[in-house]
Design brief:
The complex is a heterodimer of chains A (174) and B (389). By secondary structure, chain A is mainly α. Helix content of chain A is 68%, strand content 0%. Chain A has one domain: Arp2/3 complex 21 kDa subunit ARPC3. In chain A, α1 packs antiparallel against α3, α5 packs antiparallel against α6 and α6 packs across α7. Chain A starts with 18 loop residues before the first helix and ends in a 6-residue tail after the last helix. In chain B, 34% of the residues lie in helices and 23% in strands. In chain B, 23% of the residues are buried. Chain B starts with a helix and ends in a 64-residue tail after the last helix. Classes of the chains: A mainly alpha (174), B alpha+beta (389). Chains A and B meet through α1, α4, α5 and α6 of A and α2, β2, α3, β3 and β4 of B.
C-alpha cells in the first residue's frame, strides 16, 4: 500500500511546466489526433491523445478545477473537429480531468503501474460518458461497439507508457 | 460566503462547466416529426464560431505536417518512379489511346441516351467541373467519419457538394471554411446517399454502421441480392450524380430493428481509410464539359486515323495473302524488291513468251495481234475439224 499513501510530501508535490508546454502539448495532441489515425490505422482510431494529455496534466497539477478546465477545452476542440454536437467530448473529458486531478491528490501518480491503470480506466469512463450523454441525455441514435472502446483504452494506456516519461522531462525542476 | 466558494471552488467549477456544456448541447439538438431527437444540421452562430476556431488552430499545422510528409515521400518515390518512367509512359500512351476510343463510343451512347431522355422529359446532369483537394486530417474519432480537405470557400466549395474519387464516391462537403472544408464520409452513421443495385435495380439509402462500414438500409428482404453485385448512385438525393460507382455488396444481413428488412453491407469502391486526394464536384450541368468534348474530338480523329491505317493494312494483307497462295510467282532466292511481282520494269511477266523454233498453227503469234480475227478462221487454239482424216 506504499503507493497509495497520501501524506508524503513528494506525493503532494505539484508539478510545474513552462507556459509553452501548456500551450503546445495540447495543440500537438489535437493536431496529431486529427492527422495520425488515417495514417497509422486502417479502420478505427485506437487512441485518444487529448484524453491522455488531459490525464497527464491533471495528475501532475493535482488541481481538479484546472483538470476540469483543460479537459473541457480539449474536449470542445475535439468535438469541433467532428460533425457531432459540440460538448459531448467536452463533458466526458471535463469529468475525466476533474477525477484524475482529484485522484492525483490521494495517490502516488508517479508510480508507473498506477498511471497505466488510471489511464485505462479513465479512458473507459470517458467512453461511457460519451455514450451516456449522446444516447440518454441528448436522445440521439448511435450504434456502439464496446470492443472498440476497450481497444482504445488499451491504446491510450500504451501511449501513456511512452508519453508520460517524455513529458516528465519537461517539468520545471526546483 | 467567500469561504463557501473557496471551499467548494473545484466542485463549483465542475458543475458550471458541465451545466454550460449540457445547455449548449441541448441547443444543438431538435425534435423531429416522428418524436425522435436529431442533430440540427445547421450550426448556430456560436457553434460555427467554435468550429471555425478549432479549424483555424488545427488546419495550418496539419497542412504543414502533410506538406512535409508529402515532400519527403515525394523525393523518395520520385527516385524510384523515374527509373521506369519511359516504359510506363509508352504503356500509358497506348492505354490512353485505347481509352479515348472507348470513351468516344461511350460518349456517343451517352449522347444518344441524352437525346432519348430529352424525348422522355428527363434531364441527365453531367459532372461539369471538379476541384482537386488533398486530405489533411480527420476527426480523429470513431464516432465521426469526417475528414478535412485543404480547399475551402476560397476555391469555390459549398456545403452539400459531392466528393468523389475516380474509384467511387467518398462523401459530401459539410462545413466550409475559407481555407479548408469538412467532408462527411459515406461510412458515417449520419450520412445518407441514394443508391441503386446495378443488376436487381433495388433502391435504398446508404449510411455507415458502428463498424465504419457503409450499408444500405431499409430494403425489403430479397433473395436476388448477392455478394459481389455493384452498387451505384441513384441520383435522387440531389448531391451525387446518377451512375457513379459506390461499391460492391459484401454481405446481406437481417435488420435487427425491423422484421422483414435487410441491411446490405457494402465494400466501398473508394478506399475511404486511405484517401489522399479527392475531387469535389463544384458544378453539374446538363451538357458535356469542354474537356470531354475535346476528348471526343481527339477520339474521333484517332478513330479516322486508325480506320485509314486499318484499310492500308487490309490492302497490304490482301496482296500478301495472294502472294502466299501463288507460290509460283515468288522466287525463294530472290530479294523481295526484285521479285517478279514487284519488278516494275516488265509490266507483265507473262508477255515474255519464247518464240517457237518451228511455229505451227498452235503457236502463238510472234507479236500480239491487234487485228480482228478472221471470221472465217477459228480462233487460235480452237480444235479444227478433222474431216480429211
Amino acid at each position: 500500500m506504499a503507493v497509495l499513501s497520501t501524506n508524503s510530501r513528494r506525493e503532494m508535490e505539484i508539478h510545474h511546466f513552462p507556459i509553452l508546454v501548456y500551450a503546445l502539448v495540447p495543440l500537438l495532441a489535437l493536431v496529431l489526433q486529427a492527422w495520425l489515425p488515417r495514417l497509422v490505422t486502417e479502420r478505427f482510431a485506437w487512441f485518444d491523445l487529448p484524453l491522455v494529455v488531459t490525464v497527464y496534466f491533471s495528475l501532475s497539477r493535482r488541481s481538479p478545477a484546472q483538470g476540469a478546465l483543460m479537459g473541457c477545452a480539449l474536449g470542445l476542440f475535439e468535438d469541433a473537429l467532428t460533425h457531432r454536437p459540440i460538448g459531448i467530448n467536452g463533458v466526458a473529458k471535463t469529468l475525466v480531468g476533474y477525477l484524475a486531478a482529484s485522484l492525483g491528490v490521494h495517490i502516488d501518480v508517479d508510480n508507473f503501474t498506477i498511471r497505466l491503470l488510471l489511464t485505462f480506466l479513465l479512458s473507459l469512463l470517458s467512453s461511457a460518458m460519451y455514450l451516456f450523454v449522446y444516447k440518454l441525455v441528448l436522445g440521439l441514435a448511435i450504434d456502439w461497439n464496446w470492443i472498440f472502446e476497450l481497444l482504445k483504452a488499451v491504446g491510450n494506456a500504451a501511449i501513456a507508457i511512452l508519453l508520460f516519461p517524455a513529458l516528465d522531462r519537461l517539468k520545471i525542476r526546483d | 460566503m467567500e469561504s463557501f466558494f473557496v471551499r467548494y471552488r473545484n466542485l463549483i467549477v465542475l458543475l458550471v462547466l458541465l451545466a454550460a456544456q449540457i445547455v449548449g448541447l441541448a441547443m444543438q439538438v431538435r425534435r423531429t416529426d416522428n418524436g425522435l431527437n436529431s442533430l440540427d444540421p445547421k450550426d448556430s452562430g456560436g457553434v460555427r464560431l467554435i468550429r471555425l476556431w478549432a479549424y483555424a488552430l488545427v488546419a495550418p499545422p496539419e497542412k504543414a505536417i502533410h506538406s512535409a510528409k508529402d515532400g519527403v515521400v515525394g523525393i523518395w518515390q520520385n527516385y524510384f518512379d523515374l527509373r521506369n518512367v519511359r516504359s510506363q509512359n509508352e504503356q500509358l500512351k497506348k492505354t490512353l489511346d485505347r481509352m479515348r476510343l472507348e470513351q468516344a463510343a461511350l460518349l456517343e451512347d451517352a449522347r444518344q441516351g441524352e437525346r432519348l431522355q430529352a424525348l422522355l422529359g428527363f434531364q441527365e446532369r453531367y459532372i461539369y467541373k471538379t476541384v482537386a483537394a488533398q486530405i489533411i486530417g480527420s476527426s480523429g474519432s470513431d464516432h465521426s467519419h469526417v475528414f478535412t480537405i485543404d480547399k475551402g470557400s476560397n476555391a469555390g466549395l459549398k456545403p452539400d457538394m459531392a466528393v468523389i474519387t475516380p474509384m467511387g464516391i467518398v462523401g459530401k462537403v459539410r462545413d466550409v471554411f475559407p481555407g479548408s472544408a469538412q467532408v462527411l464520409a459515406i461510412n458515417d452513421q449520419s450520412s445518407g446517399a441514394g443508391v441503386i443495385l446495378e443488376t436487381t435495380r433495388i433502391r435504398g439509402i446508404l449510411r455507415g454502421n458502428a463498424q465504419g462500414q457503409p450499408q444500405i438500409v431499409g430494403i425489403l428482404a430479397d433473395q436476388r441480392i448477392k455478394p459481389g453485385e455493384h452498387v451505384l448512385t441513384a441520383g435522387g438525393d440531389q448531391i451525387f450524380p446518377r451512375g457513379l460507382p459506390v461499391g460492391t455488396v459484401l454481405k446481406v444481413m437481417q435488420d435487427p430493428n425491423q422484421d422483414g428488412f435487410i441491411d446490405v453491407i457494402v465494400t466501398p469502391s473508394a478506399h475511404l481509410n486511405r484517401l489522399d486526394e479527392v475531387l469535389v464536384i463544384t458544378s453539374i450541368e446538363p451538357r458535356f464539359p469542354p474537356d470531354q468534348l475535346q476528348d471526343l474530338a481527339t477520339s474521333n480523329a484517332l478513330k479516322s486515323t486508325q480506320a485509314d491505317s486499318d484499310a492500308d493494312q487490309a490492302l497490304r494483307k490482301a496482296s500478301e495473302i495472294m502472294a502466299e497462295r501463288l507460290p509460283g510467282l515468288l522466287e525463294p532466292n530472290v530479294p523481295a524488291d526484285q521479285q517478279p511481282l514487284n519488278d516494275t520494269s516488265t509490266p507483265n511477266p507473262m508477255s515474255h513468251v519464247p518464240l517457237p523454233i518451228k511455229p505451227d498453227r498452235f503457236s502463238p503469234p510472234a507479236a500480239p495481234s491487234t487485228a480482228q480475227p478472221d471470221s472465217t478462221q477459228p480462233p487460235a487454239g480452237t480444235p479444227q475439224p478433222q474431216g480429211n482424216l
